[in-house]
Each structure stands twice: as C-alpha cells, then as structure tokens.
C-alpha cells in the first residue's frame, strides 16, 4: 500500500513536471516567434527610415542644384544677346552671385581670341567672407586646361563637375555647374560653342545637408562623385585623398568591396558588410537630378549612401530582447513557484496518505485520518483510505478482543490442564496404592485355594474352614478396596460432568 502511494505521488509529480516543461517550451517558442517577427519588423522599419533619409537628402541637394541651374539659365537668357559686350560679363557674374546665396562664385569665359584684342577672356566674381571679389583668373592653370571649361566645350552640353579644390574658398572644395555659351546666327539659331558660364557651389553646403541626414544616432551619410571620389564624408582625409576604389583596395573584407562596387554601379538598395571588426549596413541610391529646362544637361553619376552600424538597427530590438527575456525569466520563476505551490498543495493529500500508511505499517492504527473537502480523484482516494483505516481499526480491535479472550481461555485451560495432570498423578498414585493393597489379600486367597485344591483329601474340615475364613476375609478386603476405587471413579465423573 505504502509503495503504491509513493509510486502514485511520483507519477503525479512526473505528470506535473511534464506539464510545466511543455508550458515552458510553448512559452519559449511563442517568445521566439514573436521576437523573430519583431526583429523583421524593426529591420524593415529601419530600412524604410534609411531609404526615406536618403530620398530626403537627395531631394534637398536637388533643390539646391535646381535653384543654381535656374539662376544660371535666367542670366544666360540675357547674356546670350550681349556677347559682343565684354564689359557686361562681370555684371552678369555679380548678379548670379548676388541672386543666389548658394553660389560662391561665377565665371564667364570664352574661347581664345573670341574677342580679337584678348587671347583669354575671363570675368570671375567670388565670395570672400561677406565681400564679393573680382578676378580674371581661376587656379594656377589657364582656364582652358581646367575641367569646368574643357568638359562642356567638348560635350556642348550643360553639366555638373565633380568636386575640385579652390584655395580661395573656405574648405577648398567646389562643384561647378557649367553652361556652354553658344553664339547665335542671324536667324537666331545656335551655331558653335564659344564659351562657358560656370557657377560654383561649395561642397560645405552639401556637407551640411548630407552629414545632417541621419536615420539612426550613429549613422552617417556620404556623397560620391562620378569618379568615385568622396565628395562628402565625415572623415575629411578621405575627401581629399581617397576614392571609393582605393577604400575597396584597402579593405580586405569582400563585403566592403561589394558595397562599394554596387554604389559605383548606380544601384539602389542596401548591403551588409564588416569593417573595423563591426557589422554595418550601407544604404545607397544614385543621385536622381531633375532638370526642368530645355537646355540639355549631362547625366550626373553621383551616388548618395548612408552607413549605419548594425547595433543601431537592432538597438531597440536588443533592448526589447533583454526586457522580454528578463520578464520571461522572472515570469518563469514566478510560474515555477506557483506550480511548486500548486503541486505541493495537490500532493498534500497523497503525503497524508503516505504518512498514514507509514503509521499503519509501524503499527499505529488508532490515529485518525483527517477528512477532506476535495471532490476530485485524490479526495475520493483520501476518503476511501480514511474509511479503510476505520475498518482496519475496527477489525484490529475485534481481533485484539478475540486475542485477549483466547489468551484468558488459554490461561484457564492451562490452569485446568495443570490440575488434571495433578489429578492424574493422584489417581495413578491411588491406583498404585490400591493395587499394592490388593496384592497381599490376593496372594493369601490364592494360597488358600491352592492348598484346598491340592490337599482336599488330606486336610481336615477345620483346616478347610480356616482356609475358607481366610478366603472370605481377604475377599472382603479386596471388595472394600474395589469399593473405594468405584467411589473414587464416581466422584471424578461427577466433577467432569459439572465442569462440562
């Protein structure tokens, strides 16, 4: 019985532990699925934010470029009708600089000997602090050897140059909008390109736009020119010394190379890469410039990118993960504690049954089993065990009474048996005594009878009479002894009848 109760308690405990383990497993799977989809949602949201940041950056830069292009083209409409008035060229340059705060300099140049008395003609107005300064040269080389002149003259199309350095500009880096100047024929048709109207934009303005664009606390944005040079980068050394190609060559990680090549290929998207032992994401898209005038313009090959550490992407997720894991562990501990209390309470009747069975096994049958108000199987088992204990106690009490009665009867029988043995001994002694007393009279009777029988013819009547008297006397003695025996037997028989 006790062994069965112990096995039942163990089975119940195993069942409850199985329920707990399954509940914990279900909770872990649920949390895992929830965290997985939360991570995906956060990642998609971070990607969307980065893409919006890039789109906003491109739009701001495009607005600046469009305002410069519009100002330049407006001046050009008037300039084209006064090409034969070189003294007005500086006025046009000044108007461009004054009309647009983004412009840091404006130059109007013509091909050699466009004006017969001047081999190289250049009107140049640029900002120096709050002042506008006039100059007739730009850089150490003749303008005919500089890219902002040679490129539009060759292409005969307007376009933006990649950044180049200018010692007169704070920060030293410019990008220029180059608009070819065409001489008109008598029929007011374009003929040949005779010069260039160049308007300078400082990359410091673009830097402010690009570097202020952040979709996460530790991200930064970059702007690449068509030649792969860093137009905008937080690290100024890379802006002046490196291109994305040199960075690709320096970086051993293939993921960095893939990201750089994708940006230079004009792709849109994002890539994960590793740099300096950290995981990063780079989001990139080509610079989509919208030109609204009829003047043809060279397509721009700039590319805007935002570099974000992976920790920024999943910083909120990691915090959420820590919180959820912490809450999960705390909840699990509370759950286990509640399960322990619940299981302990559920197993309490079984423990009582086990203790009661142990007491019964130890011989303590009289201690009552407490009642229970439970209506389940354990309560029913406890109630039946209590009734069984009562039945066992009643049976044991009855057996104890029977045992006491048997012991009393045994004692009586033992006493009676002792008396019977003593009586038997007395009887035996009495019979031996009577037997011994009967021997002498029997011998005398035998001798008298033998003497009479053997000597009948020779003996006298007196001797016969004497022998007969002896026989009678001894016979009377034997009869008296037999009477004593019969009387004793009758007395003993009467005692046995009374005892029965």
Description:
This protein is an alpha+beta fold. Helix content is 60%, strand content 16%. Strands 1, 2, 3, 4, 5, 6 and 7 form a seven-stranded antiparallel sheet that branches. A five-stranded antiparallel sheet has the order 9-8-12-11-10, sandwiched between helices. A hairpin with a 5-residue loop joins strand 6 (173-184) and strand 7. The model has no long low-confidence stretch (mean pLDDT 77).
List the helices and strands and how they pair.
Layout: H1 2-79, H2 89-99, E1 103-110, E2 122-128, E3 131-135, H3 147-155, E4 159-160, E5 164-165, E6 173-184, E7 190-202, H4 203-211, E8 220-224, E9 230-232, H5 236-241, H6 244-250, H7 254-264, E10 269-275, E11 278-286, E12 303-309, H8 310-313, H9 315-361, H10 377-454, H11 461-499
Antiparallel strand pairs: 1-2, 1-7, 2-3, 4-6, 5-6, 6-7, 8-9, 8-12, 10-11, 11-12
Helix pairs in contact: 1-2, 1-9, 6-7, 9-10, 10-11
Helical/strand content category: alpha+beta
Total helical segments: 11
Mean pLDDT: 77
Distance between the termini: 47 Å
Helix fraction, binned, reads 55-70%
Question: How does the overall form come out from the CA principal axes?
Answer: rod-shaped
- What's the gyration radius in Å? 67 Å
Low-confidence stretches: none
Question: What's the story with the biggest beta sheet?
Answer: 7 strands, antiparallel
Subunit arrangement of the protein: single chain
Which range does the strand content fall in? 15-25%
Number of strands: 12
Order of helices and strands: HHEEEHEEEEHEEHHHEEEHHHH
Overview in brief:
This protein is an alpha+beta fold and 500 residues long. It is built from 11 helices and 12 strands.
């Amino acid at each position: 019985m006790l062994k069965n109760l112990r096995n039942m308690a163990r089975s119940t405990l195993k069942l409850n532990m199985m329920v707990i383990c399954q509940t914990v497993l279900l909770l872990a799977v649920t949390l895992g699925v929830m965290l997985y989809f939360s991570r995906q949602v956060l990642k998609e949201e971070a990607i969307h934010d980065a893409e919006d940041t890039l789109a906003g950056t491109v739009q701001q830069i495009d607005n600046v470029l469009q305002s410069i292009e519009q100002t330049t083209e407006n001046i050009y409409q008037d300039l084209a009708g006064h090409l034969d008035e070189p003294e007005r060229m500086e006025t046009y340059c000044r108007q461009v600089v004054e009309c647009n705060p983004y412009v840091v300099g404006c130059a109007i140049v013509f091909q050699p000997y466009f004006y017969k008395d001047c081999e190289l003609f250049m009107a140049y107005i640029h900002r120096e602090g709050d002042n506008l300064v006039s100059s007739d040269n730009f850089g150490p080389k003749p303008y005919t050897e500089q890219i902002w002149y040679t490129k539009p003259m060759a292409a005969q199309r307007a376009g933006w140059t990649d950044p180049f350095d200018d010692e007169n500009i704070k920060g030293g880096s410019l990008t220029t909008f180059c608009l070819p100047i065409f001489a008109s024929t008598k029929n007011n048709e374009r003929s040949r390109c005779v010069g260039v109207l160049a308007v300078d934009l400082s990359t410091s303005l673009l830097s402010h736009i690009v570097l202020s664009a952040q979709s996460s606390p530790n991200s930064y944005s970059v702007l690449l020119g068509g030649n792969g040079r860093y137009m905008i980068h937080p690290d100024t050394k890379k802006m002046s010394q490196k291109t994305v190609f040199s960075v690709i060559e320096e970086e051993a990680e293939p993921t960095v190379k893939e990201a750089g090549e994708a940006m230079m290929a004009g792709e849109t998207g994002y890539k994960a890469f590793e740099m300096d032992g950290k995981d990063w994401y780079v989001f990139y898209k080509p610079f989509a410039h919208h030109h609204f005038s009829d003047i043809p313009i060279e397509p721009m090959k700039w590319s805007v990118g935002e570099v974000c550490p992976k920790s920024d992407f999943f910083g909120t997720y990691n915090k959420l993960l820590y919180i959820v894991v912490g809450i999960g562990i705390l909840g699990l501990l509370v759950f286990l504690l509640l399960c322990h209390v619940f299981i302990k309470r559920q197993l309490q009747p079984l423990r009582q049954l086990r203790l009661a069975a142990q007491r019964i096994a130890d011989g303590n049958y009289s201690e009552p089993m407490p009642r229970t108000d439970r209506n389940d199987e354990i309560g029913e088992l406890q109630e039946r065990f209590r009734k069984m204990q009562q039945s066992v106690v009643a049976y044991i009490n009855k057996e104890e009474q029977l045992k006491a009665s048997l012991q009393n009867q045994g004692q009586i029988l033992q006493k009676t048996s002792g008396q019977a043995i003593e009586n038997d001994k007395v009887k035996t002694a009495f019979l031996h005594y009577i037997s011994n007393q009967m021997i002498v009279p029997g011998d005398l009777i035998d001798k008298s009878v033998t003497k009479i029988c053997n000597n009948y013819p020779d003996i006298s009547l007196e001797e016969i009479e004497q022998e007969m008297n002896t026989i009678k006397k001894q016979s009377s003695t034997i009869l008296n002894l037999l009477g004593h025996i019969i009387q004793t037997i009758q007395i003993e028989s009467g005692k046995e009848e009374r005892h029965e």
